[in-house]
Specification:
Blueprint (H helix, E strand, L loop, with lengths): L1 H12 L1 H5 L4 E12 L25 E9 L6 E7 L6 H13 L5 E6 L3 H4 L1 H9 L4 E5 L10 H12 L8 H16 L2 H8 L7
Parallel strand pairs: 1-4, 4-5
Antiparallel strand pairs: 1-2, 2-3
């Protein structure tokens, strides 16, 4: 774990240099899940007139793997799966391959936690095979506050909120797609949510 902390410190110290180069990208990566059900959130209402949240008694939803470029805040990418599909090493490697493919001739760095499918033998072997194209830095255990992707998830879920339950997974996926399209059209917002120097301390 000390090695990982040292790697984070070194990256933090070299951020000014990295920001001025065009051959390096740094992503924060994480996973989350979202239900088609409406979420309970803080709100206000007149005394004696509480809000009513619609429920459809559905346990359907999606699992999402996502990453945000945190060096220049240029873009966020996600892969969305039906909640019946668990994210495993297979989906993780597929996603890492995608990050490599959209960054030709660049070194890809990924900051993530110690989830089992991040540390599996298959993932480690893939990273070793692709070590000239991609490298990962593991966050200290139990440190979600150090992962900028958590801010992206919070932003997603706040924008997904509505009092009426969604009718289907397709509707949920469509809303997620629209939200990320809007986010990727606003680089300033990505930057404010995920800028690396606020987290790599």
């Amino acid at each position: 774990m000390k090695k990982n902390k040292n790697a984070l410190k070194k990256m933090s110290e070299t951020l000014p240099t990295l920001e001025s180069t065009d051959d390096v990208v740094v992503y924060a990566l994480d996973e989350t899940s979202v239900s088609v059900e409406s979420n309970n959130r803080l709100s206000w209402s007149p005394l004696g007139h509480p809000h009513v949240l619609q429920k459809n008694a559905s346990h359907d939803g999606v699992n999402i793997i996502g990453a945000t470029e945190i060096l220049k805040g240029s873009h966020a990418v996600v892969d969305v799966y039906n909640s019946e599909k668990t994210i495993t090493s297979v989906e993780t490697i597929y996603f890492l391959k995608y990050l490599i493919s959209i960054n030709p001739d660049k070194m890809v760095y990924v900051i993530w936690d110690n989830a089992k499918f991040h540390t599996s033998k298959a993932v480690r072997e893939f990273l070793q095979f692709k070590d000239e194209e991609i490298s990962v830095i593991y966050l200290p255990r139990y440190s979600p506050y150090m992962n900028p992707q958590e801010n992206i998830w919070n932003w997603l879920k706040s924008n997904l909120y509505k009092p009426a339950a969604r009718k289907s997974i397709d509707e949920l996926i469509s809303d997620i797609s629209d939200i990320f399209s809007e986010l990727n059209s606003n680089q300033g917002r990505i930057y404010s949510l995920s800028y690396a120097s606020k987290f790599l301390v």
